[in-house]
Amino acid sequence: MYENRWFQVNLADVELPDGRHLDHFLIRLRPVAVATAVNEANEVLMLWRHRFITDSWGWELAAGVVEDGESVESAAAREMEEETGWRPGRLRHLLTVEPSNGLTDSRHHLYWSDAATYTGHPEDDFESSRREWIPLQLVPEMIARGQVPAANMAAGLLMLHHLRLGGGA
């Protein structure tokens, strides 16, 4: 029904188990790559940003779409450096989530590193108002207070909290 370089909107004829049919809209999106780093002090690199669609502020991890011909891991490293000014060390896959699988086929692939090198002021500094190393131990409470509103980011941060700190709050 509609297509641009970011997404497609399609109308599908869905057959239900009882044989009935219904029209269902679906949005096809490019994969999203997400990356962060956790330093020796167990602080996680995060961005404070505004999302105009929901008119909300919150903490997020660096993220963006995977470009044509780019691997998901390369996209994650590129986005982290462009948005934070920090180049990750060896990235490890954290998890893949489907934030809205009743409407979109979007998959968000989250990566993390235990090392990062500061390369300078972020190229895409307009994407966030600040970038900070946040103590990982604060993450569960930040999520509970609504300071990490994006479900994909909350899932990744909770997984990192579990991996690095054993899951205890």
From TrEMBL:
<dbReference type="Pfam" id="PF00293">
    <property type="entry name" value="NUDIX"/>
</dbReference>
<dbReference type="InterPro" id="IPR020476">
    <property type="entry name" value="Nudix_hydrolase"/>
</dbReference>
<keyword id="KW-0378">Hydrolase</keyword>
<dbReference type="GO" id="GO:0016462">
    <property type="term" value="F:pyrophosphatase activity"/>
</dbReference>
<dbReference type="GO" id="GO:0019693">
    <property type="term" value="P:ribose phosphate metabolic process"/>
</dbReference>
<dbReference type="InterPro" id="IPR020084">
    <property type="entry name" value="NUDIX_hydrolase_CS"/>
</dbReference>
<protein>
    <submittedName>
        <fullName>NUDIX hydrolase</fullName>
    </submittedName>
</protein>
<comment type="similarity">
    <text>Belongs to the Nudix hydrolase family.</text>
</comment>
<dbReference type="GO" id="GO:0006753">
    <property type="term" value="P:nucleoside phosphate metabolic process"/>
</dbReference>
<dbReference type="InterPro" id="IPR000086">
    <property type="entry name" value="NUDIX_hydrolase_dom"/>
</dbReference>
<feature type="domain" description="Nudix hydrolase">
    <location>
        <begin position="28"/>
        <end position="161"/>
    </location>
</feature>
<dbReference type="InterPro" id="IPR015797">
    <property type="entry name" value="NUDIX_hydrolase-like_dom_sf"/>
</dbReference>
<dbReference type="GO" id="GO:0005829">
    <property type="term" value="C:cytosol"/>
</dbReference>
